[in-house]
Structure formats: C-alpha cells, structure tokens
Write a structure and sequence with these properties.
By secondary structure, the protein is mainly alpha-helical. The protein has 9 helices and 2 strands. The termini are far apart.
C-alpha cells in the first residue's frame, strides 16, 4: 500500500499560486508548519512554476490592489528573475537557475562537499607516483639559431611530484574540513527543520574524516621524511659526478 498523499502538498501550491510564485519555500513551510525539504520536493515534482499561467495574484486577491497587472513594481528586484532580463538568458541556464533557486541551502552545501571529496580522489589518481624512478621529462622551450637549435627540458623527479601531491592534497583536505564544519553549523542552526538523513550525513563524515586524519598525518610525515632522504641521496650522487 502506497504512502498517503499529504494534504499540505496541495495547500502548499495554493499558497505559491496565491503569491504568484513570489514566496520562498521557507515561508510556505512556516505557514503550513511543514518540513522545508518536503516543500522543495513538491515544488520540483509538481512543477509549480509551469502551472502559473500569468503574472499576478488570482482574481479577487487584495494583493493585486493598486498594482496594475499584479506583477512586481518597476524597479523591484523580482523584475530581474521574472521580467525582461530573463529573455537574454539561454533556456538551459534559466532551467538550472530555477532548480538552484528552490534548492535547500543545506543540500547545496552537501553537493559541494561531495564534489570536493570526489576531486580529492580524482586528484590522487592523476598525480599518483608509481615509484622513485617515476620521472617526467617535458620540453619547456626550443631556441633556433643560424646554424643550430637548442631545447630546454623541465625534469620532475619522483620526490618533486610526490611533494606537490602532498601539498595539493593537504590544501584540498583543509577545504573539505571547512565545508564539513560549515555543514555541521548549518544543521544545528536549523535542527528542527532538517531531515534525519541530513543529520546522519555529518556523523558519518566525522567518522570517515576525523578518525583517519591522525593516520593520514602520520603517513604524510613518513612520506616527507622518505622524500627528503631520496632528495639528499640524489644530490649527493650528482655532486660526486661533478668535475671541480
């Protein structure tokens, strides 16, 4: 047996229609004493914006008194979103703007967290150093003379690439940690309106990020020592080959 349809679902759209779309999901949720995430879901699933046939409040509604056409007054910021300016925006971009406009800020932040974590994993795959013999040689500059030409190469040794990975990874992890902290703070600021799923997310993240952090730092310090040792041995070998 399917779950019964909430009576607030139709009431929410009636309020949205009454205000001609010029009302936020948060305001509707407050009027109905409903979870804001439910309002956002109904707004997308039922395609509220497409159901509005014209600008302005319904016939007989006093919100339209003194406002010819029922739309926002000239110069009102609503004219940017609903007025002539949207004609200059590509249809695909307008669709994205509409979806982002009704999206829960907490969900926006969660998407940023997922994206940042995915970038870290992808970065590790791209910048992975196979071994200490993993050396990259790239042509940096070519010079041409009357009788001969010369080429200048940039060489990256394994420890250089690994050091770059460690530095980049540390910065990326710090950004991720800040996003998670911001998410946690936003959750507690809106604790009565967030879903259980949103609450559980941050707890899982804390377990995944905070606990392995000490282990990661130890591995990072060990890796740095190994890189310094290899760099020292290489410099020592190169100095021995020099002719004084």
């Amino acid at each position: 047996m399917g779950r019964q349809r909430s009576p607030n679902r139709d009431k929410a759209f009636q309020i949205y229609n009454k205000y001609n779309g010029h009302i936020t999901s948060k305001e509707i949720a407050k009027l109905l004493n409903e979870n804001i995430n439910n309002i956002n879901n109904w707004r997308v699933q039922d395609k509220w914006s497409k159901k509005l046939n014209k600008i302005g409040a319904p016939f007989g509604n006093k919100n339209a008194v003194g406002n010819k056409g029922g739309g926002a007054p000239k110069g009102n910021v609503n004219s940017f979103k609903y007025g002539k300016y949207t004609k200059r925006i590509p249809f695909a971009v307008k669709n994205i703007m509409e979806e982002l406009d009704i999206e829960d800020p907490i969900e926006k932040l969660w998407r940023s967290i997922c994206l940042q974590e995915a970038r870290i994993i992808y970065m590790q795959d791209i910048m992975h150093v196979k071994s200490k013999e993993d050396i990259t040689k790239e042509l940096k500059k070519t010079s041409y003379g009357d009788k001969m030409s010369s080429e200048e190469y940039e060489i990256q040794f394994a420890w250089d690439k690994e050091a770059n990975l460690i530095s980049t990874q540390s910065k990326a992890l710090n950004i991720l940690a800040k996003l998670i902290k911001q998410y946690d703070e936003m959750l507690h600021a809106n604790w009565d309106t967030v879903t259980e799923e949103q609450k559980l997310r941050v707890e899982r993240l804390k377990v995944q990020i905070q606990n392995p952090e000490l282990k990661y730092r130890k591995e990072q310090d060990s890796m740095k020592l190994e890189l310094e040792k290899e760099r020292f041995e290489h410099t020592k070998a190169m100095d021995a080959m020099k002719v004084w």
